[in-house]
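Quick note —
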Amino acid sequence: MKYEDVWQLQDQITAAVNALGYSIWDLHFERASFVFRLELNEKVEEEKLSVLLSHLPMSADYEGEDVHGSVFTLYA
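Predicted structure written out below.
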């Protein structure tokens, strides 16, 4: 995946997260596994997880909670 493609996908992820009222603590692309790792600044309530996952620009899995908030893996 080209650098420009990663950058564009990061912008799309950020826009989707911000549109739902959440903020990002960390978002990075792991080139070896070809996934994005997303950690939010807050915990997403269980009943709102499906809404967030459905608005992301690619398929994603909820990984649980980390130090700052909810963590997701997005598959490029």
